[in-house]
Amino acid sequence: MIKDLLKDKVAVITGGTRGIGYAIAETFLEQGARVIICGSKPASAAKAVQKLQSAHPGCPVSGIAPQLSSVQAMTAAFQDLVDHYGHLDILVNNAGISARESLYDYDEAAFDAIVDLNFKAIFACSKAAAPFMKAQGGGVILNTSSMVSLYGQAAGCGYPATKFAVNGLTKSLARELGPDHIRVNAVAPGVTRTDMLAALPQKMIDAVSAGIPLGRVGEPQEVANVFLFLASDLASYVTGAVVSVDGATQV
Ligand code: NAD
User: What's the CATH fold of domain 10-241?
Assistant: First the structure.
């Protein structure tokens, strides 16, 4: 196992309190990063920090809960981090919610909420982080997309629509920010074993797995490993990519 791929890097991970984001936070800490996780509430961020500290005593992790879709709030949060740590190296825009409702039942407020978190928050966090990264000579922005950003899905159109938008933002910002030495990539997970999946009966998980060429759903660690590669200097010439981590799922 390669060690210290992210030694002394300062990494912010939105939605780092559980699931894929938690696995990214733990992996980055194991590779020497200083990690700040953003949760939806101070209490959930604090709980995740406590869990990480019990697993890795003394690890440099802290938690915050700013409003991710506000450029002003995120600029203030990142200014605090830069004042404290001196730099901001990696931003992982991972927080997201899903949707399953049909178009006929889709509530306008629910559509606004998914656009706000899954899409606008990535714009706001990137806009707030980029000036700090540019001033220090570079950085890395990583976004969590989804396999449905390639195919769409038959219900809950807000979810795939926002993930298509995430890919568009990723490819566009990679082109815009490349000259400032800021790399921008996305990871598109397939069905991954998080809380979302834990709520489903095993029979349903077996049925989903049968349609995946690798014959099983993904683990959060398998997704986090790809984030680690993209965050590290091993990916120094990779930008504007959307990397699938889905066992070759075809919908
Ligand atoms: P999860 O529900 O386990 O975690 C979601 C995270 O987002 C949590 O940390 C939560 O606190 C945070 N969050 C939710 N609402 C928030 C808000 N308003 N403000 C700040 N943070 C908020 O989900 P997960 O499966 O780990 O999903 C993480 C990302 O991966 C999402 O972007 C999701 O779309 C994507 N994804 C998941 C799967 C999967 O099968 N699990 C597949 C493809 C893509």
Answer: Rossmann fold (3.40.50)
